[in-house]
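Re: Re: ligand-bound prediction request (bumping)

Still looking for help on this. To restate: I need the protein modeled with protoporphyrin IX containing FE bound, output as structure tokens. Inputs repeated here so nobody has to scroll up.
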Amino acid sequence: MKGQARNFFTLAVLYFLFGIAVGLYMAISGNHGQRVSHAHIMLAGWVTSALFAFFYHLYPAIGAGAIARVHFWLHAASSVVMLVSLLLLYGGNPAFEPGAAGGSLVFGASVLLFAFVALPAIWKE
Ligand code: HEM
Ligand code: HEM
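Reply:
Sorry for the wait, this slipped through. Here it is.
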């Protein structure tokens, strides 16, 4: 893997480790209060980032471009803010709600950017 494919896959693996740690914490403590954070770290973090990695691996010319770089940094920054805020929010700190909301909105914008890059690429072939 090269370019943004490698960046996305690196981020995905970090989320995998993070999500597993939260899952194990819940399973061992018997406190499932972080279920929603764990679900999003696993699916919006690990699975989504890994799918982005495979997309850019299949389309290396796009993965080497400027839009893919912007997509990676928007996704990385927004997902870190969203997922860490969710963890703190479900840990009992309502002050982190704006972080979760702001992160989610930028996360949504990064998905729009991905749609803008990915759909023309697959329909051009
Ligand atoms: C060591 C591995 C894992 C442990 C110990 C673990 C633990 C847990 C626990 C304790 C719950 C809460 C269950 C409940 O209260 O209903 C949960 C829910 C969940 N886990 Fe994991 N998990 C692990 C791996 C994964 C992986 C690899 C994924 C996905 C890639 C995943 C996705 C989810 C999802 C989506 C939910 C929410 C399910 C729902 O909405 O009911 N987990 N997990
Ligand atoms: C902007 C991004 C997102 C927002 C604002 C969002 C919002 C939400 C909300 C409000 C819930 C209900 C939580 C509750 O039960 O209290 C939820 C649940 C869930 N979301 Fe998301 N979500 C986002 C992205 C995603 C993505 C990308 C995935 C999967 C790839 C996903 C998978 C899930 C799952 C599996 C649940 C059920 C979790 C559970 O109750 O155990 N979400 N989401």
